[in-house]
Amino acid sequence: MSASDRMRESWDRRAERDAFYYVETAHWDGDVAGFFALGEERARLLVDPVLAELERPAGESSAVDLGCGVGRFSRAFTGRFRDVLGIDVSEEMVRQARQVNPPDTYPNLRFEAGDGITLPAGDDAHDFVFSYEVFQHMPSEDVIRSNLREVARILRPGGVALLHVKTEPEGGRLKTAIAGLIPDAALQAVKRALGRDPLVSDPSFRGTALGRESLGQVFAESGLAIRELREDPTHDPGTRAFVVASPTSSS
Questions:
Q1: CATH numbers and ranges of domains, the chain
Q2: SS3 (DSSP) at 31
Q3: Nearest-angstrom CA–CA distance, 52 and 50
Q4: In whole angstroms, what is the distance from residue 202 CA to residue 183 CA?
Q5: Nearest to 111 by CA among 151, 56, 150, 73
Q6: Which of 98, 117, 204, 225 is 20 to 30 A off residue 181, Cα-Cα?
Q7: At 46, phi and psi to the nearest 5?
Q8: How far apart are CA 226 and CA 27, in angstroms?
Q9: From edge to edge, which strands make up the β-sheet containing 126-131?
Q10: Can you say how many angstroms the Cα of residue 38 is from the centroid of all Cα atoms in its chain?
Q11: pLDDT at 99
Q12: Could you report the per-residue pLDDT of 108-132, keeping only the tens digit for each?
């Protein structure tokens, strides 16, 4: 099975069980209105300070929410951008996103399923690409690099990406390295035996960290120039960062 198929299958299973929970495991309490209110709150905190860097006003711009889940940020973006495209590897996430964000209520918002490797968007088609708590789940650096190349491809010259990346694995690098040596089925069995959720044990949830020292090289080799590195106020210090970047050709 390809990396793309494994990601889709794993995230479809999570979405079928509880899409909202696996998007926001720390804060999901069953309150759908609160879930989307948190998306708006975090858009104000994380996104609004960066929008001034766009070459044209956000209201005239096109945005992509990469790894949109059920659209918690996508919905918030509808009041900020001319049009919004939410992309997710899970077809079930996309189905539910369309259901809870109907086009008659959000006419400038649409959702598309991707393959987790390439993005269903045209070249130089969008002004802004955003991703939050998504790259941290990508199962390998190769998958991360593929997505970064796609971000560079779909951004217009002068466009801006605000991408959230994991810079230090939870539990440390040794724990992550050991977990990587254990077959997924064995990890799932351990989770079940301990009464924990087996759906968070595979690589598409455990994900991959990028060392801060390597960010510049990884982004540059993917066609993106880092404009700024912003600290993440929503996670423990040092574990994640926001990268503000633009296509190398327009930097």
A1: 3-250 (3.40.50.150)
A2: coil
A3: 5
A4: 9
A5: 73
A6: 117
A7: -100, -35
A8: 31
A9: 109-113, 83-88, 62-66, 126-131, 155-166, 240-247, 224-231
A10: 16
A11: 98
A12: 999 999 999 999 999 999 999 999 9
**130 within 8 A of 49, measured Cβ to Cβ:** no
**Torsion angle defined by CA atoms of residues 85, 66, 71 and 86, in that order, rounded to the nearest 10 degrees:** 20
If one counts every other C-beta atom within 10 angstroms of the C-beta of residue 197, the result is 16
Q: Residue 133 gets which letter from DSSP?
A: S
Whether residue 239 contacts residue 170, with contact meaning beta carbons closer than 8 Å, is answered with yes
Closest alpha carbon to 102 in 133, 78, 131? 78
Q: Which of 50, 218, 72 is nearest to 133 (CA)?
A: 72
Q: What is the pTM of this model?
A: 0.90
Helix (H, G, I), strand (E, B) or coil at 66: strand
Length of the chain: 251
How far apart (Å, rounded) are the C-alpha atoms in residues 187 and 196? Answer: 11
